[in-house]
Amino acid sequence: MESTDPGVLKNIRKNITPEQIRNAVSLIRKSGMDSIVFCVIGFPGETRESIEATVDFLTTLDTTYITLGLAVPAPGTDFYRYVDQNGYLLTKDWSRYDPLQKPVFSYPALSAEEMVFYQSYGLRQFYLRPGYILRKLLAIRSLTEAKTNFTNFIGFVNRYVRSRARIGG
Question: Model-level pTM?
Answer without folding.
Answer: 0.90
